Input
Amino acid sequence: LMITGWSPFSISMWVAVWASLAALLIGTALAWFLATRQFRGKWVLEGATLLPLVLPPTVVGYYLLVVLGQQGIGPLLQTITGIRFIFSWPGAVVAATIAALPLIVQTVRVAFASISKEMEDAARVDGSSLWQTLWYIELPLAWRGILAGGLLGFLRALGEFGATLMVAGNIPGRTQTLAMAVYDAVQANDIARANTYSLVLSLIAIGVLIVTLRISRVFEDK
Amino acid sequence: MPKSDPYTKHNKTEGEVNRWTCEFETRNHSQSETNKHHSVIYSPGMYRLPQLSPLFLILLILTSLVFQAGCAPQVDDSIQRNDQLTVAAASDLMFAFQEIAELYEEETAAQITLVFGSSGLLTQQIEHGAPYDLFAAANVDFINRLAEQDLVFEDSIQVYARGGLVLAVHRDLEAQGVTLADLRDPRFRAIAIANPEHAPYGMAAQQALQSLDLWEELQPRLVIAENVRQALQFVQTGNAQAGIVARSIADVPEITWTPIDDALHEPLDQALAVPRLSQNQALARDFAAYISREAGRSVLQRYGFQLPEGAAP
Output
């Protein structure tokens, strides 16, 4: 499970893909729940999904360090799953997942909310189960939003720095992502390296953003 | 225009849900021209695409996973290779340790990954279980702190060098022989030091300024860097006009420097130890020994470190 000797690019990609997939799964479920259900105390769940967006990343990182660390449930998790989260890539994935979640929930929620209630009701009247409605009606109609959310989450995970630094450390070849490599290169006054990594990150961000905007154009149709 | 009430129009059985979806869409397409307020769902753009099932999404995820596996570098994760060494080192060792690690890699088959940071940060990381095989701190106090918690092997503790402080000034100021007292001059608008909270060279810088009663006065112009390497970077880029940094990293083209009297601060006795979580204890001990042998000593000396008397040959 341990990775050694990877380039910052490989580590970034590895972490961001796993994190955005995890966040997409959790985020889509949460978004569907928030968009279609009414229940007491809903605002608490809504607020909770927004929290990682407004909390300083260092605070998120600190909480994760406390929870997943040696003094927290870290040793227990390691016994059960064999995975150590602190100062290893799974920790970076957890941090990036949390960072990506709010963006995904917001985007996917809009997609679910824009499906007309009549359509769902019609399906229900016609005897479609909750699961069938989700599977045959809601997910097919919301796929653009889900994909756009996933891509935005991927970018956010790729750019995650603060919490990841605290949880996963900044270990070259193991947990040093592109974002951290930029920080390292600037500290070491290595301008060439800082330029290269910054350019790579910028190009990925711009490229994926263009794709995302094209996919989500359904929101902008007049 | 078709009737828009789905409650009465369609009452089919469960099995027909699929077919019904298609019918429903065709019907709504014509409706969209009249019902503008529903334009989001009835957007014509959507019907240019084939009916997409969630299967598509799952396929997409699977594809990305396959892609992921395909592009992942081929590294043997299962075996901890016994020639890999991750060394956490204080920032003042950046230049010296890069050189020593290169020499060691040439002589042995070992592959060394160096992680630099302030001694306090690295200590805190080890306390949280960071997977470092060897830790070289800039101050023996941090090693002792770990030893008290039984997080390092007591018998591996070794003082390998004593560091010194210098006053670094950006070359553009064309200042010669600047002393700490000269920092009162307002042309030193920003003075960089490492964070005294967790960086030994920052603590020493604070002590030196306090010894000369300059600490309070210079406080407003002090810029606190994360570690001593970053303090140097602030001066290198000219964002700080002066900085108090380690002698061992001061030989860079952008600055001139003058030494600071050792008597002004507590000695910077630098010590190393092998953490208990080290995954390659034998190699870590061997590299530690290499540092205090001739090759390592000569490099450390060249970077201005004082070496302990009578260290192991």
